[in-house]
Amino acid sequence: MHASGYRKLGKATPQRKALLRNQVTNLLYHGKIKTTETRAKEVKRIAEKMITLAIKEKDNFEEVEVMAKVAKKDANGKRVKEVVNGKKVTVYDEVKKTVKKDKPSRLAARRQLLSYLYPVTEVTDSKNANLRKNKKTVDMAAKMFDEIAPKYAGRNGGYTRIVKLGMRKGDGAMEVILELV
Asked: Which terminus of the chain has a smaller tally of CB atoms within 10 A, N or C?
């Protein structure tokens, strides 16, 4: 084993970083990915650190009441408009909302996660996948804090497992499934 702290995976640095970011994002979003063994080991290192970070900060927020403006909607869910000085203006209601406000260290953790994870867009209607209304952006940091972290809160590390599938036909690389336990 050579002394460098990570595997180079036969790629130039930007390529390697992109590959790992992509695979880590997909692992955390889908819960498992199929890849080669060496890649899986690298992805595992990064993913485990991120989950640990999410667990450490998962309860580190306060609930804050804020006043929010919400567009008034009619029975059909259309925005209510009224004419003011000859212009059509949407009518807003003031509503009290409770929001989770990150404490500073959780905000830092959230930004750390988001700086690494790629943005994930979820497609709701697969037939018209390119329409804007059928896509929604997934808040991966929130998913980490609210879904993934609570699942592993009692666990000290070892949030992923590698299951070997056998050799790949083309080049004989060991294929594995890397999944969240």
From this structure: N
